[in-house]
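hey so i finally got around to running the thing on that chain from the lab meeting. sorry it took forever, my laptop kept dying and i had to restart like 3 times. anyway pasting the input first so we r on the same page abt which one it is
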Amino acid sequence: MATRDRGAAPNSNAAPDRGRPLRRLVIVESPTKARKIAPYLGRNYVVEASVGHIRDLPRGAADVPAKYKGQDWARLGVDVNNDFEPIYVISPDKKAKVSELKSLLADADELYLATDPDREGEAIAWHLLETLKPKVPVRRMVFHEITEPAIRAAAADTRDLDQDLVDAQETRRILDRLYGYEVSPVLWKKVMPKLSAGRVQSVATRVIVQRERERMAFRSAEYWDIAAKLDAGGESETGNPRVFGARLVNVDGARVASGRDFGPDGLLKTASGVVVLDADHARRLAEGLHGVDLAVTSVESKPYTRKPYAPFMTSTLQQEAARKLRFGSERTMRVAQRLYENGYITYMRTDSTTLSESAITAARAQATQLYGAEFVSPTPRQYNRKVKNAQEAHEAIRPSGDTFATPGQLHSRLDNDEFRLYELIWQRTVASQMADARGTTLTVRITGVANTGEECVFSASGRTITFPGFLKAYVESVDEEAGGQSDDAESRLPALSEGQGVTAVELNPDGHTTNPPPRFTEASLIKALEELGIGRPSTYSSIIKTILDRGYVYKRGSALVPSWVAFAVVGLLEAYFGRLVDFDFTAAMEDDLDAIAGGREQRGNWLSSFYFGGDHGVEGSVARSGGLKKMVGEQLDDIDARLINSIKLFSDAEGRDVVVRVGRYGPYLERLVANPDDPQGDPISQRANLPDELPPDELTPEVAEKLFATPQEGRRLGKDPETGHEIVAKEGRFGPYVTEILPEPEADIDTGGKKPAKKAAAPKPRTGSLFKSMDLSTITLDDALKLLSLPRVVGVDPASGEEITAQNGRYGPYLKKGTDSRSLAGEEQIFTVTLEEALKIYAEPKRRGGQAASAAPLRELGVDPASQKPMVIKDGRFGPYVTDGETNASLRKGDEVESITDERASELLADRRARGPVKKTAKKAAKKSTAKKTAAKKTTAKKAAAKTGEGAAAEKTAAKKTAAKKAPAKKAPAKKATAASKS
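ok and heres what got predicted. didnt touch it at all, straight out
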């Protein structure tokens, strides 16, 4: 429904022939955006949402218009013989919307296309123009934030549609269609049905597969050193310790090997000047250094400076939200979109780190107000970077407006995810205009001669921050996989001078092993793709979602693990379509597409060269190799499906190749073994099932032998004494399980030519997953029969009359009553829990996923003064948190479970209460009476929030570390809340 506001219009140009103000139809993508900007424009503007794209290429043969169905290119939806003209069709679910827009346009004097300010937004505007065919003037209205000044300025300063930007987006869409529709059928025929290939998704999958290959080929190396605790003697200084840590770095002039000295094969990269200590050598040196005089031989002090981080662009926001907030890229962009559409941040799809002058002024003013003038950079900071496409480089992601709202001022208006992401963006933006952090780094060398005669040199490093600067507001998270020291971390050393003697308090031989390269997380994959020049900021979230949805990749914790199907697909593409998944080629293609956006390249020529062949690109490119169509046509018959779907792992102890075969129904393990019935004849295939949750790099020779030991038909355990059915233990796709073998059904009886009666459904065998404490090779018949007896009826709830059962599920043991499930503490409880115990569990409040009702707290605290309830620390999905049974608050950086005080715990709970309850998306509209009650409650809540002092709360939440001081309450006029205002 169109949104119209009753306020005054930004301008009141009259229709010259009608003597009335012009009526303008403004079309945006989302209803939220429409509701937000309508009041800013005034009553002469009607704002309506297209709700995304209104048309696209045909999704299947049924969508192709009848007049094109006989054409040889119709399946593509692109006329490759006529300058690659796309055939667009209106989506069935958008036909009513198009009719509505046409009706509104009939009453309008001007059409304003106000879609997003990027390539996709420009393309949506073009599709609207082509579909609606307006007979009135058309203006392109562009804005990067949804505030009243920005919207009014955009309405007053419109432009024409940027056809180059449209061409760039349309070329991408056509290219992706050609790539997917030509290459995907190859995967269907040679690997598995229903697979898909994509210009960027296939390359991203290859990046993940390559990392897993590196992990599979990796060989660990062991090396040792000595961890020492040294005493500097004298009086302990304020802030500086007397005892400090050091490590052995040099023995007789040779550097002691560390992890970086070894290659992925477990061997030293170079043996020159490096000594590898083993356990015995390290112990001998440690013993030989006891009681030996050690002296400081060098002290090197250097000034330390760290400049602030640049404001967020799309990729860095996704990376930091993953590290700090544990958000996936899709979740980050979804939350950022809500913040943008509701006017809290600037447009969230950008590859620019530039800030406008007004934003710089706002950030500097806020930093001065919160932290003091000495913490603000002497001059405004501007962060410029080489941007791939200037058309998209408008501004960094920042709080909207000429003055920034602090997180504290917004906490009552945002849900939990929105608040956390806004706080991150706000902190980063303000910190970008603050002063450098300054400090001192100190490197000390301590030398002594062991009684073995070997000279040993220890090294100790320290860092002291003398002025925190921007770190007062924001510290970037460190990748867990990459390791390293946080920018605000300090490690102090005592004041030492050359020649000073120190005493060894402890000398501990310390063994290490090298680790394989870490798997990609969403954050590190985005960083890798950005560095390779693959994809663009707006595409990273959809790339990751696609490869997860297609089953090429799955998550193990936060790590991205490739499936065996991904190995087969990537192997095929590398072997036969190498240029399509080549990193440099894909990056060069992005540059070509950017050239089209800049008007430096013509769309039709480029597509023709890519598909049919031509002179575009470097030697060996798809165009110069004859084009995509020829490449696919020539290669298809040469592809050996069996070879492609065989991934060699290693040779077993007898020299037999062990391979993973990707079959039509999933991957399995295989090797050729001697035929027991004909040892001198041809070997036969031995196969084993592969559990879905087993990562490729964990499929070692030992694991393979264990899987082969359990044949595909299962390990026979015996017969069920009640049914006489054979019970077997098998390894399945979802883990080990037990099942029964049902007898073959009786042969059909001859009915003498009469039509046989309809067959009854065949009975299904009972199955049961093994407990985590059970092993496939040792499980007994008794164990199996207990598993097959599940679910176990515990009893009947006397209050509801519903049956309560105990079951074993994918996520562990649980109770079930109707649709209400509750976790059990352990697997054995399935067989022992009584009805009384079950009713007690159901009487307790339901916990979030993974939090069993009986889980013991990590620590018990005192009574919360606000709620007068005991506080405890518990372990949750996202780490430890404090709770009083009503309010939960996560522990923050610097809070330790063992040392947190009652006062600090109460402060965290108070801060969480001040932010209000976490909003949840309503499933369906509630009844009117319920809505009224909710609105009333919200009004009361807002009044209460106003009385507690919004200004004080703002400053408390704004700072990086929550201050414990109480602020004087200020009475603010309570805002009237309505159900409509919460839209």
